[in-house]
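Note to self: the last two entries modelled the partners one at a time, which told us nothing about the interface. This time every component goes in together.
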Amino acid sequence: MTVPVGGETPAVGTGAPAVGNGTPVDGERRISGRGTRGHARIAEAFARARAEDRAALIIYLTAAYPDVATSHACFEAAVEAGADVLEVGIPFSDPMMDGPVIQAANQHVLESGVGVTGQLELVAGLGHLDVPKLAMTYVTIADTRGYDAFAAELAASDVSGVILPDLPVSEAEPWLGAAARHELATVFLASSVSTDARLAAIGRTSSGWVYAAGLLGVTGVNALVGEVTRELVERVRTHTDLPVAVGIGVKDRDSAAEVARFADGVIVGSAVVRAAGMGEPATAPERVGALVRELRAGVADRR
Amino acid sequence: MSILTPPPETIAAREGYFGDFGGQYVPEALSGALSQLVDAWGDARNDPAFEAELDDLRRNYGGRPTPLYRAGRLSEEAGVEVWLKREDLAHTGSHKLNNVVGQALLTRRMGKPRVIAETGAGQHGVATATAAALFGLECTVYMGAEDCRRQRLNVVRMQLLGAEVVPVESGTRTLKDAINEAMRDWVTNVDSTHYLIGSAMGPHPFPTLVRELQKVISVESRQQFAAQAGGVPDAVIACVGGGSNAIGSFADWIEVDGVELIGIEAAGEGVGSGRSAATISEGRQAVLHGSRSIALVDDDGQVRPAHSVSAGLDYPGVGPEHAHLAASGRGTYLAATDEEALFGFRRTSELEGIIPALEPAHAVGWLLRHGRAHLGDGARVVLTMSGRGDKDVDEVVEVAGWDVGVDRAFGADTAAGGADVTVADPARQGEQGVAPGDAP
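The predicted structure of the combined assembly is written out below.
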C-alpha cells in the first residue's frame, strides 16, 4: 500500500479505499485523510492563525462534563474566547493516556449515564461554532461500534477529525480506510522517543496536524520540557509539511507562549477541564472563557 | 510491521498476532520500549548464557522442576484421574516467578534500573518484588485498593521485599485499574523502567514472551506425565484470568492431538449474572490494555467491571492467544462460579492436604462438579495447581463465615454470618442449581 508523502494532497474520491475487515487491499488506491473535507477544515483553521502570526489554539474538553448543558456552554465559551479548534473528549472507562483530571471527568460522565450517542448529539449541537471539531477517544470506543459505523456517526455529527492516542500508525490501516470514507482527518501522536522511521510513518499517515507530545507522560500531571519538545517538533518537521501542534504539559499563558514560539498549534486539555469542573456548573463557562482568553494571548506572544 | 511496508494478505500473518487477536495498541511513547524488548528477547534467545542463567535460577533459586502429583483422593471424588502440576510448591508460592525471572534478566540486559508491575491477587507482585530484590532493581507494584484489602498478606510480603506498593483507587479499584496505572507510570518513566507484565496479555511482545517463559510448566508436565503415568492425558486444565498459567500449561500440548485444553474462567455469581469475570464466555472482541482480544465491554465499548471472589481472576480481559485458541476451537473455555471455587478450595484442602489459591480452586471446583460429565469416567487429566492458598485464608474466612465452619456457608443457613456475603445467599444458590447440603 502506498501512503502519500509530504504535503501533497492526493485526491481521495468518495469511492474511497476498502481496507480491513477482511476486504482486500487495493494497492492502486491511496488512503489519506488529506483528501478529506475534515482535513481541509482543519487546514483552514491553522492557516487563519498563521496569517495572524500566531499559533493555533486547540482546546480539549470532555463531552458532557460536568453535564450536557454546561458542557455545551463551555464549548461555546471556549470558541468565543479564541479557540481555533475543539477537541471533544469521548469518555472511556480506561483512559490509559490520561492523568487524574481527565480520568475523573470521564468517570463522572460515565456515571451520569450520558452515553456515546448522547455525547455525539451534544457535538452535533455545536454546528453554529465556526471551528473544526475533533473527537478524541480510545480505540475500544471506535472498535465496539465498528470503525465504519463510528466514523459515519462522527461525520454526521459535524466532526472533522479523530485522535486515538492508543492507535499507533502500525495498527491504523483499517481505521484509516473508514476515516477516509467518511471525510475525517486522523491526527497521530509523535513522541520524543519515536524513531525516525516511526516519525516518517507518522508524518505520512497523519492528516490535520501531527500531535507532538510535550513530555513523556499522561495528560495534566507534569509541565513540559521546552528543549526536548522543540527538538521533537523540529524532527517531525523534517518528515512532514503538516502543522505540528504540541500538547500534554501545556497549562497556562506562559507555557502556551513558550510552545507557540516553535509550534504551529498549542493543545490544552486538563487545565481547561479542571476549570470546567471546579466550582458551580453555572459559572463554568466563565471560568473556561477566562482561561482560554489567557491561553489565546499566550499563543499570540511569539517574542 | 509498519505502514511503510506492504500489508500482508491477512491480519493473521502479522507479527504479534494470534489469528485476529494481539497487536500493539499503545501510545506512541511506548513504541521504543516495545521494540527494545522485542530486540532484547531476540538476542537473549540466541545467547546460550541467557538460557543457562535462566535454567540455573529456575532450578536452584525457584525450585524447579515442580512435581507432578497424582491426587488419589481428589481423583476418587472427581471420578477422573487427577494429576496436579504443583506450581504452588515453586518459590514465592505460585507459577509467577517463571515469567518474572526471565523478564528481570531482560531488564538487566536492557540496562534499566527499575521495574513496575501490576498485581491482582498479589502473587505477581510478590514474584516481581522477589526478583527485584534478587537483581537489585527498584520496584513499584500497582495493586487495586480493593485487592490490597483482600490480599493483605501479599502486600506485607512485597513491602518486606523492598517494593513500593501503590494502592490504586481509580475505577473499580481492582486489577484492570492497576494495569492502567502501571501503563501510565510506564509512559512517564519509559527511559528507566521496564513494565514487567505478569500475564499473557498486553501489547506484543508480552503475550508471546510470557507464554515462552511460562511454557516450562507444560514442558515439564509432558515429560513427567509420560514417565509417571504413561502416554498423554485426555485433558490439561488450568484457571484463566489474564491467562499466564493457562498458556504455560497448554503451550507444549497445543501440538499434541487428542489432548483437550480446558481453561476455566471465573464466573463470579454466574455467567450472565452481571457479576462475573468469564471473559471468553461472555465477552466480545475488543481492544484492552494494549492488544485486541476478548473483553467484557458494553455496547458503547466501556469496560464492564468484572467480579470474582478471586482477586487474581477478577479481570475483564484475557490474553490474545487464549482468544485465538477459543476462536479456533483448539481450546475449550468454561467457567466456575465463586461458590464452585470455594468448594474446590475446601475439598482440595480436606482431601489432599493442599490449600490451593482461590484461582486454581476454580479449576478444581469445575472438575469436581462437571469433570466426569465432560470428560467421561476414568479420564486422565493434568490440572495446574498454579498457587498456594495462604494468601486467601482471610478472604475465605470472611466470605464463608469462619466461626460456624466453612461447610455451613455453603448450605442454606444464612445465620452463618455475612449477610453481605454472596455465596451464603440460599436464593441465589438455588438459581445456580446448588441445593442446600450439596456440599459433602
